[in-house]
Amino acid sequence: MTHYIEPAPIKDKENPLESMMQRFDKAVELLGISEEMYYILKVPARQVTVGLPITMDDGRIKVYEGYRVIHSNILGPAKGGIRFDPAVNLDEVRALAAWMTWKCAVVDIPYGGAKGGISCDPRQMSAGEIERLMRAYTVAMLDVFGPDRDIPAPDMGTGPREMAWLMDEYSKAKGMTINAVVTGKPLVLGGSLGRTEATGRGVMVSALSGMDKLRLNPYKATAAVQGFGNVGSHAASLLHERGVTVQAISDISGAYYNDRGIDIEAAMRYRDANKGTLQGFDGAEKISNDDLLTLAVDVLVPAAKEDVITHDNAHLIQAKMIVEGANGPTSASADDIINDKGILVVPDILANAGGVTVSYFEWVQNRIGYKWTLDRINRRSDRIMKDAFDKVFATSQEYNVPMRIAAYMVAIKKVSDTYKFRGGY
Ligand SMILES: NC(=O)C1=CN([C@@H]2O[C@H](COP(=O)(O)OP(=O)(O)OC[C@H]3O[C@@H](n4cnc5c(N)ncnc54)[C@H](OP(=O)(O)O)[C@@H]3O)[C@@H](O)[C@H]2O)C=CC1
Ligand SMILES: O=C(O)CCC(=O)C(=O)O
């Protein structure tokens, strides 16, 4: 029996790092970036891998691998979530860290990009085992994290509970309470109002902005949302609130379809009362996660994981618009097919930036020792998301490129200009 938890193998097909680099290369070429700057932007500033021996509930010791990659800290402290998932490996974390750099630059917040992850399956672990893993990871990253250095947050498989453990462990090690070291915390520990829904809310703002460009009336529009976790469930709920008929939702147990629309609040209540799963939800017909992606809806929101839309299924997509709630849900191999079909894609580094935007607000509130109202947070984050959408859309028109490449161009220009002005290399 193995006590070492092997990280997921690096994928040679549909590798997220490759997908990120292909879009990056295109944007760099259009911007006429120098070769020196190309490598400055490409190579991560820091990569840390740690071994984490954890005592499991049955007394055995298992050794997990954890990662933190700081892609860039030129715009400010690095920022990015921590992922607990069996598919985590260093390549995935490197791609996710770079996406954070571009994302923060697209929405014009003063952060660089980072990401962390542990190759583990939290669904198979007790709360105590997860807590020991999170605390061990925090101790291993004491010289990486810091409110002015690198500020983690939740991602897939983690949430406020894990962020609370991180803050506690970090604060104990430093001998004082330092809540600005992490965002996405519970409210009582200095979390921000609105952070839980923030990513889904930004997805909703992006979807409505895209619908406006396509002249789609939200009250007549339909949507399918893949993933019913933090991002997917709030995106579905907020789209529903704005009049959109959400015909399909899904989680790892499968997808649930109803052409008259799913009662999203009922689905959320069902999931919360059913150990976090939609398994058995009866307000809809059960279909597969693959079938959800090819439904004849106006708006498709992939909000679960990477590389679900690939060369193999892109030609089957019927949606008029894809709003990427997840990071990297479309692999680069699908880009040309999707663009040729005329589908408007609001890319991940724009569409899901509402989360990090409100994380930024949380950090600002922690630092000034004050709490903003939910109304102020929502108004400010909606404005940031709408301005970013308009800027990326205008760039896509100016250069006649898809919004994805336009978003990379906006981001890369900002980061490379920052390097030029700071100089010293
Ligand atoms: N949380 C945030 O603020 C942000 C998250 N993101 C990105 O959004 C995506 C989702 O993150 P988040 O909502 O936080 O994660 P969660 O862990 O809260 O939810 C993930 C959801 O995806 C489902 N899922 C996982 N694997 C599959 C699969 N193979 N097929 C179908 N569904 C699956 C999960 O199902 P189940 O519950 O059954 O396991 C769950 O419903 C990730 O790509 C993340 O990086 C981006 C920006 C910010
Ligand atoms: O809220 C944050 O700081 C980061 C969220 C995140 O990991 C992401 O946007 O992918």
Automatic annotation (TrEMBL):
SMART domains: ELFV_dehydrog. Substrate binds at residues 79, 103, 359. The record marks 155 as: Important for catalysis. Keywords: NAD, Nucleotide-binding, Oxidoreductase. InterPro entries: Aminoacid_DH-like_N_sf, Glu/Leu/Phe/Val/Trp_DH, Glu/Leu/Phe/Val/Trp_DH_C, Glu/Leu/Phe/Val/Trp_DH_dimer, Glu/Leu/Phe/Val_DH_AS, Glu_DH, NAD(P)-bd_dom_sf, NAD_bind_Glu_DH. It comes from the Bacteria. The keyword Cell inner membrane does not apply. One of its GO terms (molecular function) is glutamate dehydrogenase (NAD+) activity. The active site is at 115 (proton donor). Pfam families: ELFV_dehydrog (PF00208), ELFV_dehydrog_N (PF02812). Residues 192-423 form the Glutamate/phenylalanine/leucine/valine/L-tryptophan dehydrogenase C-terminal domain. This is Glutamate dehydrogenase. It comes from Pseudarcicella hirudinis.
